[in-house]
Amino acid sequence: MKLTSHHDKRRKSSTPQTPESARQPEKDSLDKFFSQYVNFDYYSKQPVWDEFNRMCNLFNWEDEDFEMREAKRNFKSAMVQQLNHLYGNNENDLESWRRLCRILNIQDIQNEVKACRKVSAGLLSLFSPTKIPRIDKA
């Protein structure tokens, strides 16, 4: 039986560190959704609905196809997860409202939730869910 010191045990259990340059960028909900379809080359810089429609065309899916309905359900879920990650899902969180105001390019960001809602309401109607910002851009 070989005895090891406390120091040896600690060294053996440590995990190797990955160099910063070798790390993969974090996949967001939409990246994860599209990565399920290995025969589809997803372009994350394109509007997400355009990419979804392009994928449906590639697979020759019709609206009534089970695969299309299932993919659309999962796609919409991924979009909601992405938006929740970017903007939060607590309607009373001031920082989430302030983040949304910054994304909407509102210069005079308010210090109260009610004021942020009021200022952003008009611009939100112009917001296109086809152009959901990526995690690294928010």
Total count of helical runs of at least 4 residues: 6
**What order do the helices and strands follow?**
HHHHHH
Structural class: mainly alpha
- Whole-number total of structural domains: 1
Question: What about the largest sheet?
Answer: none
Indicate the overall shape: elongated
Through-space gap between termini: 56 Å
Which stretches of 5+ consecutive residues score pLDDT under 50?
1-22
Q: How much β-strand is present in the residues?
A: under 5%
For this structure, the quaternary state is single chain
Describe this structure in words.
The chain has one domain. The radius of gyration is 22 Å and the shape is elongated. The protein has helices at 6-13, 29-35, 48-58, 66-87, 94-103, 113-124. It contains 6 helices and no strands. By secondary structure, it is mostly helical.
